[in-house]
Amino acid sequence: MTSTFHALLLTFFAPALWAQEGEAAADAAPAGGDKASSFFQDAGTIGLVIMVLSVVALTLIIKEIMAMRRDQLAPPELVDEMEALFEAGEYQEAIELCETEPCYFTNIVAAGLPKLNANFDAMEKSLEEMVEEETIKLHARLSWLSLIAGVAPMLGLMGTVNGMIGAFAKIAELKGQATPDQLAGSIAGALITTMLGLIVAVPVTAAFVFLRNRVVSYSLEISAVVEDLFERFRPRDA
Predict the structure, then answer these.
(1) Exposed/middle/buried for 235, CB within 10 Å: 0-12, 13-18, 19+?
(2) Other CB atoms within 10 Å distance of the CB of residue 26
(3) DSSP 237
(4) In Å, how far are 7, 52, 98, 157 from 1, measured between CA atoms?
(5) Residue 61 and residue 58: Cα distance in Å, rounded?
(6) How many CB atoms lie within 10 A of CB 221?
(7) Of the candidates 81, 87, 88, 123, the residue with the CA atom closest to the CA atom of residue 106
(8) Which residues of 181-193 are buried (b: 16+ CB within 10 A; e: fewer)?
(9) Numbers of helices and strands, H then E, in the chain
(10) pLDDT tens, position by position, 23-57
């Protein structure tokens, strides 16, 4: 289990490891395992937390990309069936369809159907409120990605401060006689955590913006479909 976890982390943070390649190619081959081990050791507990966050973020990104698709939020066959029910005037069957097939589209439609006997303005207001509510739910799911994108660099900064404190503590302990190799571990840890935080924050921020824009786009598109469905109930001027 541990080896698998490390393999996953190595795959995600490969750029960070490559950035450390400052030695000749002849020295890199035999020291590959030691370099990876040293990387995780220098990263420390804070670095490990950032790595775990990266795995969580990757899982959330894959999950939301799969969930926030047009055919998931408003399945085409469901839209066609709803349109057929509206054309036939079978509104009770439409309500039952919304109850048995809950999704973004049917949840909005279900808000307007009970208002068929009310005036059109009340129906329209119910639809608008449900669109807003359903869209907020989608944005709330994405807020976890926003949180990780914000927390990761802050953890990196915390690791940097922690590493520099360790370096200065070593200098004080040795009364200013510390050699570079005695300070290298603390400084390396400080820089690694900063780098890890940025490595996580940049792609997660990009994924968050991408998914947020997708939510906005699909929300407008599906709202237009629902509006067309209920347009038949709009009073016509004499």
Answers:
(1) exposed
(2) 8
(3) P
(4) 10, 14, 44, 29
(5) 5
(6) 12
(7) 81
(8) eebebbbbbbbbb
(9) 10, 0
(10) 433 344 444 556 656 666 666 788 889 989 999 99
